[in-house]
Amino acid sequence: MAGDVWRAFGNIDNYVEPFFGSGAVLLAQPYSSGRVETVNDINAWLTNFWRALQHDPDGVAVAADYPVSELDLHARGDWLFYRAEAPQFVERLRSDPDYYDVKSAGWWLWGICQWIGADWNRRDCPDAGKGVGELVNAGRGVNRKIPHLVNAGRGVNRKIPHLVNAGRGVNRKSCSARGEAIREYMRQLSERLRDVRICCGDWKRVLGPSQTYGLGATGIFLDPPYAPENRVDVYGPNDDGLVFSRVREWAIENGSNRLLRIALCGYDFEMPTSWTRRRWKPGGGYAVGGDGNGRLNRKKEMVWFSPACVHMQKELMP
After folding, report:
1. Which residue positions in the chain have pLDDT lower than 70?
2. CATH assignment of 2-42+201-305, given 3.40.50.150, 1.20.1260.10, 1.10.230.10, 3.50.50.60?
3. What would the pLDDT profile of 249-306 be if each residue is shown by its tens digit?
4. What is the three-class DSSP state of 300?
5. What pTM did the predictor assign?
6. 259 and 308 in contact (C-beta within 8 Å)?
7. Phi first, then psi: what are they for 60, rounded to 5°?
């Protein structure tokens, strides 16, 4: 969908993404550099990764380059999320825009590459480990979730597209070559993020006039937590179920501003008639490839574009 988003935004002066996540839309930007780019995510671990990568890509690569190991997956998760200093670490990330921790960034990346889905090490998740003691006495035996083990995804050691040909058999690259490939991949991402302003906090903090239309024609990509009926299953018990509705209200209130080109993503929702809708279906993946909600929800995906967006044609309701 990123291509359609950028065709709708055009060659804007300024870009803002309040729910940054993996950064797929920013990284798909097809125009030459020169615009202001501001991104935000309330997830402190994700924000720390992007910040650390921006400043020290080699350090992140070294910390992330480690074999798949179940005990280490849980031990490192406990260290990241539940050590005594974790709340202070998160607060410092939110209060100091220059702070980051390379070790935490690399370990977090290494862990999420092995833990397919959400809830890595969330203590109220029945599949999440809580350390060595939990692993031996939890009583779940073979039903406990294990690291991702299929050949297509070996954590950060899997083949990186467009960088190296890992080879097979006697032609397989050495561990040092794979490590260099990971470092080169991180360097490319770091170079792309060199001038991006990375914030950590509430989504509204990056949507004021000084961050948006005060800088000229602004594209705003809004991909907030959706509003499915099974919110707890998707986002966890502490999720604020009102985020999507509040983001939608903000988009409607600001949609008439001719300097704002807004794209709002979600499942089967309505917007004013002056907005343009695009339906789309995600590609393959673990969620959409199964028989659960992911397969059903992929048919509900849509993006609404505000009136100021360019090159848009109305899509008739089915």
Report:
1. 117-119, 121-175, 227-241, 283-299, 311-318
2. 3.40.50.150
3. 999 999 999 999 999 999 888 999 999 999 877 765 555 555 555 555 556 789 999 9
4. coil
5. 0.76
6. yes
7. -65, -40
